[in-house]
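Morning!

This is the sequence you dropped in the shared folder:
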Amino acid sequence: MIARHVSRNPHPSRRAAHRIVTGRIVMATVAAALVLAACGGTDSDSPAAEESPAADADDGAPAVDGAPTTTGPADRATPETVPQVASSPVDVTLSGLDALRSGLPDGAPEPLVPLEEIRSGGPPPDGIPPIDTPRFVPASAVDFLEENEPVVVIDVDGESRAYPIQILMWHEIVNDTIAGVPVTVSYCPLCNSAVAYDRRLDDRILDFGTSGSLWNSALVMYDRQTETLWSHFTAEGLVGELTGERLDTLPVATVAWGVWRDANPDALVLSTETGFNRNYGRNPYPGYDDIDSSPFLFSGEVDGTFAAMTRIVGIELDADALAIPLFRLQEERVVEAAVGGIDVVAFWAPGTASALDAGSVAGGDDIGATGVFVPEVDGEPLTFSPLSGVDDEFVDDQTGSTWSILGRAVDGPMEGSRLDRVEHLDTFWFAWAAFQPDSALIE
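The structure's back. Tokens below.
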């Protein structure tokens, strides 16, 4: 593990020139996608379309003329809401949204970042509509997802839940309650990052919307109670009454639908019946994760260690940060490291599609899935290696037990045991380097 370094070439090569052209095309595509995500978002009483977009789409971009239509086939079980913890009353005294439009009033807290660095992404606040009344179906009843489709998964106090990226990329925020804990699950397509937060802050319970703005190309949220602006990436209040506050975050992972379903057949999955007309299953950002493309509305310099869109597994523990290039993890399949004085192990398994590659979410290249864990059970440390002859399982050297990408022992003396999940981000290099400039790097 070494500290990352900077290497910049002042003379653009032909490859760099190609990136400039590609970047312009991608930026136009992303701008159109953001408008598309914000359009057609009125409540709908019409039934879901009977044909799944994922079933018939390969690499074609979604149509942009007219409002996108709803979802895939109807769920085999009637979607139901789950009990939600009530949010605190609205009490706006210093609006971060207003500060972006009109400047900071006298006596306002100093923003964590200059206001000019927070840039409009195009849509107005909640123009990309968050899901505030999520509906769910049991995993065993879902038939709108392909086996390789990515889903963001979370466990809270033993209760597991999955949020398909084919839904999240059109809404970016889901305000929910899991095991009595008020949470927000967020996904930023422009950084390809998923983060979950505990919505409790002191004596308030917040809920979040999309501000329509970006910082370092990443989603900027706002809470409805105070209209403070929040960074999706750092969970910090940026502008407004709660400037400098930080939300507690919860570990999530992005894995293949079929893998998670088989391990959690009775758990709940976010339904496509969201109350909005959206073309779920289609990717409105086709080609955005091309290694030669450029990040959208990113004004910072990209550290030249890697191309901007290189995929990174990022870990932050106790103010210590570490980046593992995905290509390294794909080669090794198991990488062990120490972050913040804590031993961690990262796994990689194939079989998960990139949501940002093809015209359909399920049609993207296989980038696989990652998991980061504390390598011990009941205080006993474990070391791991890839299971010989099996590309999606791992074995511990101490007991010979077999483990899955979910950190669960599926065979051997430790069958049924689970590793504690460590918070990590699957994201792009430009974003990790911007938000974690002092991060160490495994090369």
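Headline: The CA atoms of residues 139 and 404 lie 19 Å apart.

More detail when I'm at my desk.
O.
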